[in-house]
Design a protein that fits this description.
Blueprint: H1 12-15, H2 21-29, E1 34-39, E2 44-50, E3 57-63, H3 65-71, H4 80-96, E4 103-105, H5 112-124, H6 140-144, H7 147-156, H8 160-166, H9 168-173, H10 179-193
Parallel strand pairs: 1-4
Antiparallel strand pairs: 1-2, 2-3
């Protein structure tokens, strides 16, 4: 580490790798609402933020744990379908708060595909956010719908022992061969109640 009387210590959040202040400044200079998506190993957080001089304020938000509490979701809250549904909930809530457009703030990215899934959910809810369609990989819609999980379960269903080993957590709660219908049911529940 550098030493001496002219050395300036970077801000704490920059040293911890949590904030890139150069990109944050560009986003704040636009004076638009920011769509912030953050993902951990088990959860997804989607927020619409209005930046003010005294501090940021949250206009609308959704947390993936709400899927379990309010919409009967029985699966993991950190996977692609849960990220999509969380983004969809946040987008609908933003529409109710008369937020029609925003800019995307992904921060220092990790769990990139889950961030994209949540972003896709916000877009499908009707919020206009500048982006290129090329950002979504080929076959991304199928992954959001859970088809990749269902297809993998069908592939392993031939070998009963391997199937039970790989899908032991799913089998306690649901039938992995019907996961797309569960996701569609939850999406319809969200459309009905939010």
């Amino acid at each position: 580490m550098a030493k001496g009387p002219t050395y300036k210590l970077p801000p704490r959040r920059r040293r911890e790798g949590k904030t890139n202040y150069h990109s944050r400044k560009k986003l704040l200079m636009s004076r638009k609402n920011r769509l912030i998506i953050r993902a951990s190993n088990k959860n997804i957080i989607v927020q619409f933020i209005k930046s003010k001089f005294g501090g940021d304020s949250v206009l609308a938000s959704a947390f993936s744990k709400e899927l379990v509490k309010s919409y009967g979701w029985q699966l993991n809250t950190g996977n692609l379908p849960a990220a999509y549904l969380t983004g969809y909930i946040a987008g609908i809530r933003a529409k109710k708060e008369n937020i029609n457009d925003s800019i995307l703030d992904l921060g220092l990215m990790s769990h990139f595909h889950r961030l994209l899934a949540a972003f896709k959910g916000v877009l499908d809810a009707g919020i206009e956010i500048p982006h290129k369609e090329l950002i979504f990989p080929e076959g991304f819609e199928e992954r959001i719908n859970g088809n990749h999980i269902q297809n993998y379960a069908k592939l392993l269903a031939v070998d009963d022992e391997l199937y039970k080993l790989k899908f032991s957590n799913y089998l306690k709660l649901i039938n992995p061969l019907k996961i797309t219908s569960i996701i569609d049911k939850t999406l319809n529940e969200i459309k009905r109640t939010v």
